[in-house]
């Protein structure tokens, strides 16, 4: 009898262990004690049982990580090492390419144990607990919700105008409607910008603040004075975070590209595929940098003045480098040909960013408007700078060189 009881107990013990193992496969168990800088996310997707889930983020060493996990009855787990609250992106489909993919969202990870709930087809409704920074991020998005509603309505309005043009052709009425729509978009952008500014100026301790500052400044929505004062008010943690350091770089770039300072370096490929650098002109030429783009009316007007100045001073040691913001090579080359500016160096910004990938050309040279003209001497020191058109000022700057 005793022998039967022992066998029964052993069988029950094995059965219980098997049950626990099966449950682990379905719902991963989070560890109770985490290593330093470790994060763990356990969670479940409602509405999907199988497939993959991708997490994109920068780890504690600054390395970009693309972590993929396989769903098991909708359950998943991610583990990694981060040194600070870190922005990450979740993607529900490995082949997703659309920016507005419904199975894509951003979250803020922390070195902690976190729980995440996702809904298939609606990742924007993700619920992440265990991350203080995510709670702050959610609070910001709640204040921004009204802006998203307006944005959706404007997209509908735009689609309606395009449908009218498709069926009835372009007219003065559709032009007027587009003009009104653009005004609404401008008002919406101002509103969204204010929401972001209100947040980062009142949350100096939040890691969300430098992210919002970076995003707004990247869209040229912040003045130099505002970004510098807001950055200086950040506490040490956010200030030394990934986005805090990027903001610091931008501030230094804005402070650096002024009259009297040395021009930052540049290596690029010109229109003919030839690689050149600013360094090759030192001790040989004065260099005039012309930042422009095809759709900029004032830029195209200024091209006429540049042609005149090139004719006057090229033989005396002046080189011009026209740097285009355009992304369409065909449109850019057509504009260069139409304006007759192919006699000097012409390049696209994207061809410089290939060589200088650590920062964009607009950031490196603090380009806030088009056109922007920067004139440097043979030592690479900035002699003149102007954002916009100032024909008399540029004429005077070159005349003062007495070439």
Question: Which terms would index this structure?
Answer:
403 residues; alpha+beta; five-stranded mixed beta sheet; four-stranded mixed beta sheet; 12 helices; 15 strands; 22% strand; globular
How does this structure look, described?
The chain contains twelve helices and 15 strands. The chain is an alpha+beta fold. The chain has a five-stranded mixed sheet with strand order 13-12-11-14-15. The chain has a four-stranded mixed sheet with strand order 4-1-7-8. A four-stranded antiparallel sheet has the order 3-2-5-6.
Summarize the topology.
Blueprint lengths: L1 H25 L11 E9 L5 E7 L5 E7 L4 E7 L4 E6 L12 E6 L3 E7 L7 E3 L2 H37 L3 H31 L5 H11 L5 H9 L3 H4 L2 H15 L10 E3 L5 E3 L8 E7 L4 H17 L4 E7 L4 H11 L5 E4 H5 L7 H4 L7 E5 L5 E6 L3 H9 L4
Parallel strand pairs: 1-7, 11-12, 12-13
Antiparallel strand pairs: 1-4, 2-3, 2-5, 5-6, 7-8, 9-10, 11-14, 14-15
Order of secondary-structure elements = HEEEEEEEEHHHHHHEEEHEHEHHEEH
Count of distinct strands = 15
Helix content: 40-55%
In what range is the share of β-strand residues?
A: 15-25%
Unreliable spans are: 1-28
Largest sheet: spatial strand order: 13-12-11-14-15
Describe the main β-sheet briefly.
5 strands, mixed
What is the number of helical segments per DSSP (H or I, 4+ residues)?
A: 12
Classify the secondary structure makeup into a structural class. alpha+beta
